[in-house]
Write a structure and sequence with these properties.
The complex is a heterodimer.
Chain A (H helix, E strand, L loop, with lengths): L1 E5 L3 H12 L4 E5 L2 H10 L4 E5 L1 E2 L2 E2 H10 L5 E6 L4 H9 L4 E4 L4 H14 L7 E4 L2 E4 L4 E4 L2 E2 L4 H12 L4 E2 L1 H9 L10 H16 L5 E4 L3 E4 L3
Parallel strand pairs in A: 1-2, 1-3, 3-6, 6-7
Antiparallel strand pairs in A: 4-5, 8-9, 9-10, 10-11, 12-14, 13-14
Helix pairs in contact in A: 2-3, 6-8
Chain B lengths: L9 H52 L11 E5 L7 E9 L4 E14 L2 E10 L3 H46 L17 H50 L6 H31 L6 E5 H13 L6 E5 L4 E5 H18 L6 E6 L2 E7 L27 H12 L2 E7 L2 E7 L2
Parallel strand pairs in B: 6-8
Antiparallel strand pairs in B: 1-4, 2-3, 3-4, 5-7, 8-9, 9-11, 10-11
Helix pairs in contact in B: 1-2, 3-4, 4-7, 5-6, 6-7
The chains are: A alpha/beta, B alpha+beta.
Chain lengths: 224, 418
Amino acid sequence: MKILIAEDEIALQQSIVTYLEKDGNVCEVASDYNDAIYKVDLYDYDLIILDINLATGSGLDVLKKLKKENKEAGVIIISANNSLDDKLDGLDLGADDYITKPFHLAELNSRIKAVLRRGKFGGDDTITFNEISVDTKSRTAYVNGKAMALTRKEYDLLVFFMTNQGRVLSKEIIAEHLWGDNSDLADNFDFIYVHVNNLRKKLTGEGAKYIKTAYGSGYKFIED
Amino acid sequence: MTKTTKKVRLSRKTSQSFLGISLILMVVSTIVLYFYVSNLLQDEVEEALFSTEARIETALKSNYAPFDLPPIVEIGTVAVLGVEKIKDTIIYDPSQDEMEEFRELTSFKEINGKNYRITVRDLVVESENILMAVVVSYITIILSVFVFLFYFSKARNQKLWQPFFTNLEKMKRFSLTSDKPIGLMDSEILEFHELNKEIKTLTGKVKSDYLNLKQFTENVSHELQTPLAIIQAKIENIINGDDLNDIQYGHLTSIQKDIQRLTQMNKRLTLLTKIENKQFLNIEKVSLAELMGETIQSFHEISVTEIKYHRKDDMWTKMDSYLAEVLCTNLLSNAIKHNTGESDIEIVVEDGRLSISNHGTKPLTHPENLYTRFYRESEAEKSTGLGLAIVKRICVLYGFLIRYEFAEGRHVFSVTVE
């Protein structure tokens, strides 16, 4: 996939690039407003990650331009401003998703995949990994064509794992993905362990064993 | 500590001193007037006595026969001439049938070879009568002056002080959070005008300081997000990079936890500022009981603490739906965080009141600081110290009553909706 990252903080921009390139994506960067306008004008992207506060202009204006020119790229807005108004403005202008700084790259990646799945070009509602396939429309997971009985959280967890294949996911990241702001409530992350374990059992029961433990307390979804 | 004295109204204070001074003046001038008037009368009477005596003397010299007209005139002959004297005397006056005070002049004259004693008397106005007259006329004057002055100055003062009282009311209603200027009424009186100017300067300064402080909090929270995002992204890349050992991984995930804490703190500070700025305007009819039920449901997955919920009322209220959610979440998470032991949390909704209680070992030592930012009673490191500050702000915003008490070994928070 061809992705443009319009972010004026170079360190963050490069971190995103590093993370996304591991999945075989082609990443281009724009470090200010003019650069972003120039690149979206000239090239077509599958997805654009757009910071609202670009050094020399507003990301929302880039978004307006994209929509005016009927570019088909999916857009995820990143903003340092956790305000509902900004979020609604962005979504009203046609952005596909909105994420607030600071975010986990795994979370961003998961959202990118979701946007791409819904995308008009080559959009596919299914995520497939060997014998596992997930229909994101009906929110059902299948192993070898056989539907699995998953709870809501187990389903979310499976999708999160599958969209971040080969990545180490710490309990903190998983907790925040599943419970958002409330995840700081938990004393320890034992409940993550319970959920992961249940999912693991259901998967291995069907013959799929991809959830590995990493560094004793993290997890990784990876081919044997 | 300054001594607090009983406060009196300005108009009362001034009329009080006016009355006091008037009373003293009245007493003093009554005394003076009394002596003055009685002296004057006495002089007048004496003058009349001397004049009568002179006329009698002239009459006697012209050989008029001596005559008597007691008690006014008495003429007698004596062997030896005495010394002329004037004195007060009390004599029975048959015409009035009472004892009356007279001024009496006795003089001795040798007229045509005879020694005469001439006594003339005249009625004296009694001193009580003078005093009476003075006091009565005084009281009449003073009363009418008082009444007149009272209404006159009341009306006058009201007009004169009106800008002052209007501005006082305005200052009472002055709110830091409102973006309207104080808008004082101007006055032609120099002192009031100056006072207004000073108040305007002062409120302007306070307001701009407050705004700066608020802006600062907002900016800091905002500016921190990007560096946090960078740190978080880099840590994730390190974790996904070359092989780490378990210890390094442990350190990195612990940093992730701290970043999350900072993020939470930031979000809550921003939330507080936004509530203060009244930026939540999505007012809806919400059932706090319903919301609490949902909150319990979602917490159930994270926390092992058992939550007992008794819902006897829907607790409908009008408020921003997001803030309603925040209210329930913060109250519940506060109870979960500070719950001790294995005991359960109890939530009761009835009669427009939501109360939530968790087990505790002892009452709070400083319950008055409960809603202060970053105040932590216990060393529970999970806490950002902002949850209850937010709860309080929301309650203040919508006029809910929030109470804390420690009863039967439980910390109880209750929110009452109007």
